[in-house]
Design a protein that fits this description.
heterotrimer, A alpha/beta, B alpha/beta, C alpha/beta, B: alpha/beta, 2 domains, 5-stranded mixed β-sheet, 9 helices, about 30% helix, C: alpha/beta, Elongation Factor Tu (Ef-tu), domain 3, 7-stranded mixed β-sheet, 6-stranded antiparallel β-sheet, 15 strands
Chain lengths: ~325, ~290, ~280
């Protein structure tokens, strides 16, 4: 077993070896994952950070290419990905990476995402506390679940046990001299929020048209909060920002709740707030299941915590499958 | 203590729905993470309505969004407002977005809204002169039990204005660099109702789409100017922000300037004129004449 | 193609043909010689063309793969990128990504009648398949082309139409909407679905169609009415697309991504998809 202090003091030596370290830190009233210089600022007193690992693997804005119209030349955007340790994120956020991997490193490989993933070691700190919005268990994960982590630290009697999960994790551990433990961890904290997904896929398969879609989406105001804070949502836009002769092509997060998402000059195939909300639910709980065999939800609960108008996905899933 | 105001509200909503005065009513309900909007169609569900010192939401924005916008085309809807929320309804009426006769307004006598973080009555409630909403279709609550709420409703705005220019610039650049352009502030704003927001226009594209600092500054500053003379200082934008940007300080700064210079408060009078649509003959500036 | 995802290769506009007042076709040559020589695609696939500064948009490859050394796209001015394309001149540079998407079935239809039904600029994605079919004409039975536009001046590929009209191994019918004819017009006057019913091709044919959404909905109805098997009615769909590879998330109809699983669909497949296109 290791004390948190021992681990934190080792982080400086990882940085000295050339790793950039991303970890939870306090910024004003928020706890955010951010690149840190000073490991003593790491804050592990959180349930979940506001932002997710997506911020670093599929950033909210990245340069695809730069162009110079006068010289008629195009250069790929500078790749700034460094060997990276993500320290202190939670199991649900790591599990989300395994879903993004299936989507973005599949038949077609998203080169920038793949490069960043290849250079990143995810060192998860498992949860000793949960809150009322957490529902990871219902999605098949859990407060100590290792899915997507390379190394996981499990809470044990006030300290942490190191478990090496992936080959990448084992290599990193041997590189920095992090020894695994095999003692028994504390029991997982209990989750109060549960939702059964029994019958959900079958219902979604046959109820694209159903009056319930209008009802469950009533409170939604079509902002992008739930999307942008979701660890698995990955839709994006590609747009140019240019001056007179030079400019950049950017990949920017985008969101199915905005009507501009699908709007063409000639045609809008998805009309209505309810249809956009339906797309969100269908995409997570049916289309992704059909395409990669996984639900695109890890039960982190950010969409519930941060929705300004109380839209609650677990309540909605229950309402969809319930009779009447 | 028994919440007589809430009980009366439920009673009245049940009556209004039973009599068919309104087809649907929007009020406050309880979500698992706090107060949230509740649409009531079935009179039996009036029991789910709540009213307490945490009912901060300004529900007026739903008037110009689905599904109420569509319902109002053929039926009357009910809306629960505090005196401050009513200002947003008034601006929507003045700007011809909704028609007064399509809305049945239930005004709640209000003793101020408590902050969810436990820091007491919200800044926006200070100096409130609409604790008893006048001009609604009915008022629920006892004006005799009111407590006056003292203080400066612009204290936070003034605190930022008192910063030196470099300090203020650094405050806004560091705060706004956090913006992820989820547009929760815009979507939460009862007065951001444009069918196509300027952020979505591409020919020409006025605002960078990217959530970079320059794109974020452009978005928030333009939004601030679009709300000049219109912002009713309800704070929905900041409340909705997932990354804690005090967006309303920008729009309320403009509201404060307009109040101090022109003695104008957006939405104060139901049949008043929009600020930017009014001028007077004796305007001290002569360019307008 | 560049090995960084979404980075296009440069290409040069070699020729511009004004098809109609608001539609032009561009002949594009890929700059990189190695890439150009190895470049190949299938009829029905699409590409993304960028005007740097305005952005990228999706266009079907409108020339057949058998025409080597260049590709053609046909562009109607409707939005930011398309209007930027309309401002380009011969010699200007564009970005090119592709080919993407699936393609029209071809070999499986040997020995059958083929009916092409196009409306307006919607004939662009059919054009490579038409020329490919004509190149291997002896492998098919009868070939019908039914093509219509709002007015005579809105008909695209007038040179192609003349060539097709002069061949006696194609049953070509052109039509314009009522009121769209001029004095010299010798074709039909009527909406494309009506003309399809009038021509009434044998129902054991394969029908390949593309046009405005409204036209297609009625073409499907007419095809059903005439007795076509929905497996033999094939179309290509347009949705807003950004990535071209099924990850940006906006072109799906149900669980199908039009860019990756399409754009070519059989009516039988479409009837199983949610009505969201």
């Amino acid at each position: 077993m290791k004390q948190l202090q021992e681990i934190l003091s080792a982080i400086g030596s990882w940085q000295a070896k050339g790793y950039q370290v991303i970890a939870p830190v306090r910024r004003d009233n928020l706890i955010l994952l951010a690149r840190i210089e000073d490991p003593s600022l790491i804050n592990l007193d959180h349930i979940l950070t506001v932002n997710t690992l997506k911020d670093f693997m599929l950033p909210r804005c990245e340069t695809i290419l730069r162009f110079d119209l006068e010289k008629a030349c195009v250069e790929p955007g500078i790749d700034d990905s460094l060997p990276t340790i993500i320290f202190g994120s939670r199991p649900c956020d790591a599990a989300a990476l395994s879903i993004l991997d299936s989507i973005l490193i599949g038949d077609v490989v998203d080169s920038r995402y793949a490069k960043r993933r290849g250079q990143t070691v995810v060192l998860t700190v498992a949860c000793s506390r949960v809150d009322g919005a957490c529902f990871c268990k219902s999605m098949g994960y859990g407060p100590h679940d290792p899915t997507g982590s390379d190394i996981i630290l499990l809470p044990s009697q006030g300290g942490y046990l190191v478990r090496l999960i992936s080959e990448k994790g084992r290599q990193f551990a041997s590189d920095v001299g992090l020894e695994p433990d095999d003692a028994e961890a504390d029991p997982e904290p209990e989750l109060s929020r549960r939702v059964s997904t029994d019958g959900l896929k079958a219902w979604l398969d046959s109820n694209f048209e159903d009056p319930k879609w209008q009802v469950i989406s009533e409170n939604c105001v079509s902002c992008g909060t739930c999307y942008y804070l979701c660890p698995t949502c990955h839709c994006f836009d590609i747009a140019d920002e240019a001056g007179i002769s030079r400019g950049v092509r950017l990949r920017i997060w985008d969101c199915c709740s905005f009507s501009s998402f699908t709007k063409m000059a000639s045609h809008q195939p998805r009309v209505g707030k309810y249809a956009r909300y339906r797309q969100r639910v269908m995409h997570k709980f049916k289309y992704t299941v059909d395409n990669i065999g996984k639900v695109a939800c890890v039960g982190d609960g950010r969409c519930i915590r941060y929705c300004p108008y109380g839209v609650d996905i677990t309540e909605i899933l229950k309402a969809l499958v319930s009779g009447g | 203590m028994k919440n007589e105001q809430e009980a009366q509200l439920r009673r009245r909503v049940r009556e209004l729905l039973n009599r068919g005065t309104v087809e649907v009513l929007l009020g406050y309900g309880r979500g698992l993470t706090g107060v949230r909007p509740l649409f009531v169609r079935d009179p039996a569900n009036a029991e789910k309505l709540i009213w307490n010192e945490h009912c901060n939401l300004n529900l007026a924005g739903y008037l110009v969004r689905e599904p109420l916008k569509q319902v109002m085309a053929g039926a009357r809807i009910g809306l629960i407002v505090k005196g401050c929320d009513f200002r947003a309804v008034n601006v929507l009426i003045q700007e011809h977005q909704v028609e007064r006769q399509n809305i049945y307004l239930i005004g709640m006598v209000c003793n101020g809204i408590e902050s969810d973080s436990g820091s007491g009555i919200l800044i926006k409630c200070r100096g409130c002169n609409v604790q008893v909403p006048e001009g609604t279709d009915e008022v629920i609550g006892n004006p005799q039990e009111l407590r006056q709420i003292d203080g400066d409703p612009f204290e936070d705005v003034r605190a930022i204005m008192e910063m030196s220019l470099p300090e203020r610039w650094s405050f806004w650049t560091s705060t706004l660099s956090r913006c992820i352009k989820c547009y929760a502030c815009r979507q939460a704003c009862p007065l951001c109702y444009c069918e196509e927001c300027i952020t979505e226009k591409s020919r020409p594209q006025w605002i960078e789409k990217a959530p970079t600092l320059s794109g974020n500054l452009a978005y928030h500053f333009i939004r601030t100017m679009h709300l000049a003379g219109r912002c009713v200082a309800c704070g929905e934008c900041s409340r909705a922000c997932p990354v804690d940007i005090p967006v309303d300080v920008l729009t309320r700064f403009v509201a404060l300037t307009i109040k101090e210079r022109f003695d104008y408060v957006a939405g104060d009078e139901p049949d008043g004129k929009p600020f930017l649509a009014s001028y007077c003959e004796d305007d001290p500036d002569d360019f307008i004449k | 193609m560049h090995n960084e995802t979404f980075v296009p290769t440069l290409a040069t506009i070699e020729d511009i043909r004004q098809e109609t007042p608001d539609i032009r076709s561009l002949r594009i040559v890929l700059d990189d010689e190695g890439f150009r020589q190895n470049f190949t695609f299938k009829h029905g696939q699409f590409c993304l063309i960028s005007v740097f500064g305005a952005g990228e948009a999706v266009f079907c490859l409108a020339s057949p793969p058998l025409w080597k050394d260049f590709v053609e796209i046909t562009v109607k001015e409707v939005g930011k990128v398309t209007s930027a394309i309309h401002d380009l001149e011969v010699g200007d540079k564009v970005g090119f990504r592709g080919p993407y998407g699936n393609s029209f079935p071809f070999e499986e239809n040997f020995g059958r009648n083929i009916v092409f039904v196009g409306g307006g600029i919607g004939i662009a994605p059919l054009r490579p398949l038409i020329w490919q079919t004509l190149a291997e004409r002896h492998k098919f039975k009868d070939v019908y082309i039914i093509y219509g536009a709002r007015s005579v001046s809105d008909l695209v590929y007038k040179e192609d139409l003349r060539k097709w009209a002069s061949r006696d191994d194609i049953k070509l019918t052109t039509t314009v909407d009522p009121g769209g004819e001029d004095e010299a017009w010798q074709g039909e006057v009527g909406l494309v679905p009506q003309i399809l019913e009038k021509v009434s091709p044998p129902t054991d044919s394969v029908l390949v169609t593309c046009g405005p959404l409204v036209m297609m909905k009625f073409v499907f109805l007419s095809a059903r009415k005439l007795g076509f098997d929905p497996n033999d009615v094939i179309t290509t769909l347009e949705m807003k697309m950004k990535c071209g590879v099924g990850t940006c998330g906006r072109c799906n109809i149900g669980n199908k991504y039009v860019c990756r699983d399409g754009p070519v669909f059989r009516l039988a497949e479409m009837e199983k998809l949610p009505n969201e296109f």
